[in-house]
Amino acid sequence: MSNLPQELYNEIFKGTDNSNLLSCSLVCKAWLPSTRQSPLFQNISMTNSNADAFADLVMNSNSSFPFCIQELTLDVNATWLRRLLPFLQSSNIQSLRISNIDWSKIDEHTQSQFISYFPTTVQKLAIGPAVAFEDLVGATRLINQFSSLKALSMKDVQWSRVRAKIDSNSRHSTVHNKTLQSNPNYTTFPFYPLPADCRSLHFTQCDLSDLSDWLHAHKPFPNVPKLHLEDAKLPELTHLRAIYINASPVVEELWLSFDVTAGPIGDFNCAIEVVYERESRGKDLVPRLRIPKQVMERVKGYCPEDRINYFLPSLVKLRFDNFVYFSSKDRSCGVFYALHALTFLACRKNCTPLRQVICGIMLHRAGDLDRHVIDWPLLDIALLQLADFARVGGEEYRVDGSETGFRIIFEIGGGANVEAVTALIQVKLPQSHIESIVEFKEVTVG
């Protein structure tokens, strides 16, 4: 067989499914690098059920394919972790995920060995779900060892909370890095700093109060352009806001997701996502409130205005994915939440004017729109108020080409006749239609 450049082999096998790659890897030696560096061995997930056979294969052969692995998931107990250390030493892993393990029960020697195999290669580290540490210091120690780390995610990671308020004579706690000091409101164990090149943090279902202490221990605040904080609880909102305030000067994309299941009047079963993005021509983060799909099962009369205003004094864009979702009243937020949120935003003062609202409408038939009991007259009034607010807000808030500076865009999909749905909504929002603040777009759901 003729000798072709390796890059050409790689291009030939690109996109080939695993079954064919396996067959091709047995044809000739020249094809081995392309087939093994492809998805056949590029992404490996190791569990307690397959670790034995996999370890025997690796340890009893001179195979070079471990070096081809770029993404590795370790979902094994401490015993298997010790057995796999020799295999990991010959790897070239760039993305590592550790899940379902109690790190605090692994002896220090094994921990040190494990960490020593990865620092120069791993760029993405995912910890969790179901990973436990003795304390946050242990977690930060592990993270700190990955010197080439560029992205860190933690989901459902547990540690013991050992935090106590300092007395009046204490100024800050001791830290491992001289450039760090802890949050002055607390005495904590010394933290290990985030690797200097890390540019993305993603925390889900973790103790944000402790993580806030860790992030604020850095002086200055870590330069992390992408920061995702998800599933925060109400007691953590103060810490969430503190992170937002300190991250704002450096972050390019900030996601906040917090639960608002409880209120003074009743239960509100909804999760709110806030996306902050830095516009290309702007210096400030522009927040966009996102009401994700499948956010409600039932609603009992309460809209968390205080929490929206707490985080969004400069909200300019608002999106409701499921303003109308086919015939489902439970999944259609236009019936209650979206309307309540818009009427609140239309009345708030001393805030940046809202300039764009996007409402997703999914219908099989245009006539199904009337199955949803939406207070269209009230919505019409709220939209006019938002338009008036934007009109007096100044040129810097205007949408390009807009006379009022405000638009509501209905994105219509699901198979219904777009022209028919458009005509129905125009009739239901007569004043907004006359003022030309309503737009319609057809969307295709892939």
TrEMBL record:
It comes from the Eukaryota. PROSITE patterns: FBOX. It holds the Pfam family F-box. InterPro entries: F-box-like_dom_sf (IPR036047), F-box_dom (IPR001810), LRR_dom_sf (IPR032675). Residues 1-44 form the F-box domain. This is F-box domain-containing protein.
